[in-house]
């Protein structure tokens, strides 16, 4: 063993070894095989449910005489709202909103659910603001495709271009999807949304009053708790009561609603996407439901940085038109030829042995 340690390889032979290894890596990469995921059919079903949902919403919008501005919603999805309304809480990224309106995100949620180990009959908790109605629909579509029960608490406030139309919020969208028998789910509760879930520092002075009117006419439980810590705990109680002593298998956060996302620096750096083993939990009463569920060792799906989610999962960014279902990279995986890796290692070791014996 000491002889091997003392043995010096010349620059020339190091270059040859480097070429062998690089050739193996390149050959491994170019020979990989693209195949559908093992849950491809479920992804297709979820994406189709979302596509049908968007069609139903678009038809309802046209029926109500609400104009779809093709300058901001070129795909006519019907879920891209106005920039500034009484429901607008913060600035929003139009590219992100349009990207999230792609049914490919329903396929992504199936992928996340599978990776989290969810099975038919499982219960998941969803906390969502109005910022990304497309992602709520994507999550519910995946839930239906996998026969998973979602418990949804919805915050009405939305960032720019989200569900910002006061006469057609996500509450209205879901009712339409119920009536059309596309999605069967009801809201567990609604809240005001905005800063501290109290519509603080909104763009219009009458925003809170308008949002409260919407909440009170929603035919569901209205959460109006000014203390954020108590608000978070009440939501946990509602989820657990609705689960009827059954385990909650996953929490999905959509957007940046204060009770879900939290009000700490740790919230800002929380990982995007599926989080199995999350970061250190901050010792703060307002750390949000993402950390409440993490503390219970329940996986979290955090959906906020849309561009990052799309890039990492093979979903096109802001496509016009939307791609055909089943074509994007999120529906596929790559299988590498392991024998090439093994053969490359064998050749490299054989060359080292040859050099040693030659020495």
The neighbouring-strand order within the major sheet is: 5-4-3-2-6-8-7
Distance between the termini: 15 Å
The pLDDT mean sits at 92
Oligomerization: single chain
Order of helices and strands: HHEHHHEHEHEHEHEHHEHEHEH
- How much of the residues is beta strand, in percent? 5-15%
| SS-based class | alpha/beta
**DSSP helix fraction:** 40-55%
Please outline the major beta sheet. Answer: 7 strands, mixed
| Number of helical elements | 14
From the spread of the alpha carbons, the general shape counts as: elongated
Cα gyration radius (Å): 25 Å
Our count of domains comes out at: 2
Poorly predicted runs of 5 or more residues: none
Count every beta strand, where a strand is a DSSP E run of 2 or more residues: 9
Please outline what is shown here.
The protein has 359 residues and is an alpha/beta fold. The chain has two domains: 2-32 and 336-358; 38-331, no CATH class. The chain has 14 helices and nine strands.
Which features would summarize this protein structure in a list?
359 residues; alpha/beta; seven-stranded mixed sheet; two-stranded antiparallel sheet; 14 helices; 9 strands; 44% helix; elongated
């Amino acid at each position: 063993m000491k002889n091997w340690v003392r043995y010096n390889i010349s620059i020339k032979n190091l270059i040859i070894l480097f070429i062998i290894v690089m050739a193996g890596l390149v050959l491994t990469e170019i020979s990989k095989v693209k195949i559908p995921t093992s849950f491809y059919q479920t992804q297709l079903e979820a994406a189709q449910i979302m596509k049908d949902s968007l069609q139903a919403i678009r038809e309802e919008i046209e029926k109500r005489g609400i104009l779809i501005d093709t300058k901001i919603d070129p795909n006519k999805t019907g879920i891209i709202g106005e920039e500034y309304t009484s429901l607008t809480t913060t600035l929003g990224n139009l590219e992100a909103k349009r990207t999230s309106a792609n049914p490919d995100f329903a396929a992504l949620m199936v992928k996340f659910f599978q990776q989290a180990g969810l099975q038919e009959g499982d219960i998941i908790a969803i906390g969502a603001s109005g910022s990304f109605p497309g992602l709520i629909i994507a999550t519910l579509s995946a839930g239906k495709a996998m026969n998973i029960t979602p418990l949804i608490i919805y915050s009405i406030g939305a960032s720019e271009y989200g569900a910002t139309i006061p006469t057609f919020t996500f509450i209205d969208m879901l009712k339409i999807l119920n009536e059309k028998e596309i999605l069967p789910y009801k809201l567990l509760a609604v809240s005001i949304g905005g800063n501290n879930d109290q519509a603080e520092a909104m763009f219009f002075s009458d925003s809170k009053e308008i949002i409260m009117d919407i909440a009170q006419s929603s035919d569901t439980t209205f959460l109006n708790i000014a203390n954020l810590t108590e608000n978070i705990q009440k939501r946990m109680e509602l989820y657990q009561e609705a689960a009827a002593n059954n385990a909650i298998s996953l929490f999905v956060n959509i957007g940046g609603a204060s009770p879900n996302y939290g009000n700490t620096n740790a919230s800002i750096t929380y990982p995007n996407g599926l989080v199995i083993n999350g970061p250190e939990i901050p010792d703060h009463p307002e750390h949000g439901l993402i950390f409440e569920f993490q503390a219970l060792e329940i996986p979290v799906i955090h959906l906020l940085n849309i561009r990052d989610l799309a890039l990492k999962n093979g979903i096109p960014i802001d496509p016009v038109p939307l791609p055909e279902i089943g074509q994007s990279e999120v529906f596929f995986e790559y299988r590498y030829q392991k024998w090439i890796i093994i053969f490359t290692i064998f050749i490299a070791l054989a060359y080292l042995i040859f050099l040693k014996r030659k020495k």
